[in-house]
Amino acid sequence: MESQTPDRPPSLPSDEPGWPERPKNIRRLIALTIVLCAGAVVADLFYSKHGHYGFENITGFHALYGFFSYVGLVLIAGQLRRFLKREEDYYD
């Protein structure tokens, strides 16, 4: 059986940033996220809501609730890191 050799050697990772790291693409991803979030809030206007509580019927309530919950989790995680972090050579 003959061993197969590649036509070219495997490429090494380059210092060139990947597509999500390029500034132009970062701006595009942020713009796409904003458009999708705005679209979700606009779509909220076109159907009837049947919330259990009155404030659940406010337009965009769930989007805002999700956003502030996420921000709160990130802030709490940052503080929790102070208690859970280990020294750099912990596993050595």
Task: Walk me through the structure.
The chain is mainly α. The chain has two domains: 18-47; 48-84, no CATH class. Helices cover 49% and strands 0% of the residues. It has helices at residues 23-43, 61-84. The longest helix is centred in the last third of the chain and has 24 residues, at 61-84. It is flat.
Integer count of domains? 2
Q: What is the typical, i.e. mean, pLDDT?
A: 84
Largest sheet at a glance?
A: none
Work out the radius of gyration: 24 Å
Which descriptors would you attach to this protein?
single chain, mainly alpha, 0% strand, 92 residues
Sequence-ordered SSE layout with sheet pairings:
Blueprint (H helix, E strand, L loop, with lengths): L22 H21 L17 H24 L8
Please summarize what this structure is.
This protein is mostly helical. It has 2 helices and no strands. The longest helix has 24 residues, at 61-84.
